[in-house]
Amino acid sequence: MKKVMLLAAGLFLAMSTFAQTANNKTTEKKIEVTGSAEIEITPDEIYFNISLKEYLKGKSKVEITTLEKQLQKAVVDAGIPKENLTVENVSGYNYDYLNKKKNPQEFMASKQFRLKLNKLDKINIILGAVDAEGIESTRITGYSSSKMEEYRKETKIKALQAAKAKAGYMVGAIGEQLGGIIEIQEINTDSYSDVRPMAVNYMAKSADMAGGISDVESKTIKVRAEVRTVFGIK
């Protein structure tokens, strides 16, 4: 009988403790706020796509390998590491495929390259060293920064600081004091501004192209971070 009574007493005590804990949780004062931050940076990594294509010069075909060697040499001569030039895609077409001719002169190959640059001041020199007839198109495809991880960290810290400041003045407005942090959640981090890639049509010795590149160089990237936080109220 004593064992049963002790067991019942222990169960009652456990239930009372649980109820008290649950009650404390429901009455705990807290505030939930979001904080955001945004910094603007100048990119030092620009990705430039160059598409080369074979073509007929009289009755002779200018091979894609010839054009590729011209581009590779131009990149190295401009003082850019050769590793910065990579192949993106290879394709080809045949004008007389319907007639099923197998004349190699009629099959034209094309090759797309991606060139990583820190500035666009040498792009005219590079493209000018490649046979203009063999350049099908050029295009800026993206921007980034070599210090992006540092900028991401900085933006997240500022977002968290903004959340704390907001919680502080909101709690202070009702005569309360802000307590410690209870929860932090990243809502939207590593977000970049919508910088649309700008196409640049290559024209030998074109002043318009130089002007377009100058305009692109002035563009900036906006790195944004947002956090959700929960603070206690003293």
Automatic annotation (TrEMBL):
Entry's Gene Ontology BP terms: DNA damage response
Signal peptide bounds: 1-21
Keyword field: Signal
Name of the protein in its database record: DUF541 domain-containing protein
Organism, as annotated: Chitinophaga jiangningensis
